[in-house]
Amino acid sequence: MKRTIILSALTVLLTFSYTMHAENPLTSRFGTPYGTPPFDKIKIEDFKPAITEAIKLHHDEIEAIASQQDKPGFKNTIEAFDRSGRLLDSVTSIFFNLLNADSNDELMELSHEIMPVLSEHYNNISLNEALFGRIKQVYDMQDSLALTQEQKTLLKNSYKSMLRSGAALKGKDRDKYRELSMELSKLSLTYGQNLLKATNAFEMLLADEADLAGLPESVRESAKARAESKGKSGYLFNLSYPSYAPFMKYSSRRDLREKMYRAYNSRCIGGEFDNREIVRSIAEKRKELANLLGFENWAAYVLDNRMAHNCEGVYSLLDKLREAYKPVADKEVEEIKVFARELEGKDIDLMPWDWSYYSEKLKDRKYELNDEMLKPYFEIENVKKGVFGLAERLYGLKFVKNDSIPVYHEDVEAFKVLDEDGNYVGILFTDYYPRDGKQGGAWMTTFKGQWHEPDGTDSRPHVSLVMNFSRPAADKPALLTYDEVNTFLHEFGHSLHSLLSKCSYSSLSGTSVYRDFVELPSQIMENWMDEKEFLDTFAAHYKTGEKIPEELVNKIVASAQYHAGYACVRQLSFGYLDMAWHTITDTVPADVMQFERKAMRPTDLFPEVENTGMSCQFSHIFDGGYAAGYYGYKWAEVLDADAFSVFKENGIFDRKSADSFRTNILERGGSDDPMTLYVNFRGKEPSIDAIMERDGIK
To answer: Which are the contacts of 244, defined by CB distance < 8 A and separation ≥ 6?
Structure first.
């Protein structure tokens, strides 16, 4: 449910003193193709006045709903509430997307001014007694209203979101809610910016040939280009994924692998960008806020609005998977220890910085398969054709590059998306490469959601796909690893969820679903990566154009279950850590690292490494929407394995199966209970059998 609230005009003016521009590109009608953001005209100084104007407009819209004399009804209260704040949504989506994808010191500083104002605004709406009173009246008479299922869901969400945002609180409790929610928004913002700064602060410049031992030529070329872009000579490695991951996988210099590992996993533990006290404060204030709203802890509060329903449901999943996968993971680690001893001719104490290196070498021996063999067949332009082509075969979509649409950085491309009849579906922005000021990782977001206007017009979405792939080298195009192609498919699945949405209300459309359901459309896409029929559609050598040899494809398929135990247990460790922080009912522990080690110990596969940890860099739960929800990745894996079994039975390009997945899942957003949507597609509730069979566990 989108956040909506109120801020008095006086507070706005006191907070943001400015001279109103005659025409602010953020608040004026966008004169761009398909109403996309006018990135070529937007300046940083436009954001403060635009947000102030948008807040004032939203305030007026809410006041009009809350103070009207007409009897509360679905249209004049619930629909009006959903449609309020469109300008504010537009301006803030642009601001926060740029803050994540193309940031600088000025934007970061501005975000610290903007967040408290937005937090106060949203609090004012959620605590608006007159508004809540009208929503409650409609909610109480819902049985007498002839509502569609989507309208029933919107009504329930509107009422429940107000309750969950403190609407029923009184007196000092309301003031406390305001205080806690504002403090949490500031803390999360600082946490994320500390992590970005700490990530950018580390560089390892190598010059000697001995320091480059084991690194393939492509990794060296990328490192050399990275150094040249900074005006340095030699080979530059940093903590961005395209730099860090290949180094850990291929470098035979154990001492340098350890250096990189410690740098990566000690980010924000001590020093200038220390996040430890911020972690404690976020955990404490979330617990206080949950208690204020009548819940035992933050996890209970969050899970009340999830498919898992409660902490017991989450721990049941995590424990079942741990019991099944941990013994397998232990055997995989023992196998690597034996292999490392054989390779090195001596015993070594296997440490976390050894896993990727020896795992890759054993994979190469077992299957004669490694990333360097595959990368020539995963040239980025071919991969785009393959990923976009999959959407065309399944859903009839076409992606037409449109250079007339303004973009926020020269790396970004814009595509007009059409259905098989040539009808406009939406806009897709793609942003593939890392740079300073861009958060690490990969994500999908929207600049504009999908909804129906009051006259029935279908307002289509503008979707952004952001990744951090290896850049092209001086004499080579961008060649992706297998994992990077998999990441592309994953995030593209999120994009399809937004692009194909056919909902009436913005707060229910696209990815506006339960957090433990949102990964199904993304994770199901990864299943195609191990299918020969799909690989044959795009994987061709970037020099010769020769299709990927059948022998290599067979090796990909054969290696699909390689170290599935380790991969699962690693994800479970993060799920247990997340739940540990958010099931605290007493005082938050003083020692962040000690608390973390205890939480993750049941999934330990390696000895502990001092002064390293996850909590201080776990942006998913401390600077994202996955607090008490990281288990959702495994939850969704159960769903995606079960769902993909339909395609395995009927054909991986079967249009009937794709049409069913589209109409029952992708188009419906959050318009109905997710289990209902899933059963409508699958015909039954999911079980863990499919994922265990896929991983070779069962």
So the answer is: 237, 238, 260, 264
pLDDT at 6 over 60: no
Q: Could you give the CA distance from residue 576 to residue 596 in angstroms, rounded to a whole number? A: 10
Instruction: Indicate the burial class of 547 (C-beta count within 10 angstroms; 0-12, 13-18, 19 or more).
Output: middle
Rounded to 10°, the helix 564-582/632-650 angle is 140
* One-letter amino acid for residue 45 of the chain: E
Residues 148-206 pLDDT 10s: 999 999 999 999 999 999 999 999 999 999 999 999 999 999 999 999 999 999 999 99
Neighbours of 175 (CB within 10 A): 11
197 contacts 190 by C-beta, under 8 angstroms: no
Rounded CA-CA distance 124/623 in Å is 23
* DSSP symbol at 447: E
- Encode 489-500 in three state secondary structure: HHHHHHHHHHHC
- CB-CB contact of 415 with 399 (8 Å): yes
**What are the pLDDT digits (tens) for 311-340?**
999 999 999 999 999 999 999 999 999 999
Distances, alpha carbon 213 to alpha carbons 240, 253, 620, in Å = 20, 6, 34
For the CA atoms of 390, 394, 396, 400, the dihedral, rounded to the nearest 10 degrees, stands at: -20
What pLDDT shows up at residue 624? Answer: 86
In tens, the pLDDT along 544-555 reads: 999 999 999 989
Q: How confident is the model at residue 7 (pLDDT cuts 50, 70, 90)?
A: very low
What is the residue type of 169?
L
Q: How far is CA 506 from the centre of its chain?
A: 19
Rounded to 10 degrees, the C-alpha dihedral 3/9/15/19 comes to 120
The answer to whether 491 is a known catalytic residue is yes
Question: Of 180, 397, 158, whose CA–CA distance to 298 is shortest?
Answer: 180
To the nearest 10 degrees (0 to 180), the angle between helices 276-292 and 592-600 is 70
Indicate whether 643 pLDDT > 80: yes
Percentage of the chain lying above the pLDDT 90 cut: 91
For 521, the token pair is 């459309």
pLDDT of residue 440: 86
Residue 336, both tokens: 């690597």
Alpha-carbon distance of 682 to 282, in angstroms, equals 39
Q: Which residues have CB under 8 Å from 645's CB, separation 6+?
A: 690
The per-residue pLDDT for 474 is 75
Sign of CA dihedral 171, 176, 182, 184: negative
Burial of 197 (0-12, 13-18, 19+ CB in 10 A): middle
Mean pLDDT of the chain: 94
- Chain centroid to Cα 653, Å, comes to 26
Query: Which of 409, 432, 538 shows the shortest CA–CA distance to 487?
Result: 432
Relative orientation angle of helices 632-650 and 311-344, to the nearest 10 degrees: 80
- SS3 of residue 7 by DSSP: coil
Q: At 120, which amino acid appears?
A: E
At 426, the amino acid letter reads: G
How far apart CA 152 and CA 418 sit, in angstroms, is 31
Judged by average pLDDT, the poorest of 7-16, 491-500, 585-594, 652-661 is 7-16
**CA 522/CA 228 separation, integer angstroms:** 36
**CA-wise closest residue to 47 among 101, 98, 6:** 98
Q: Report whether 636 contacts 516 (CB < 8 A).
A: yes
Which one, of 205, 209, 207, 216, lies nearest residue 247 by Cα? 216
Residue 117 makes CB contacts below 8 A (sequence gap 6+) with 7, 11, 12, 15, 16, 51, 55
Q: Which of 491, 531, 637, 667 is catalytic?
A: 491
Residue 109 burial (CB count, 10 A): 11
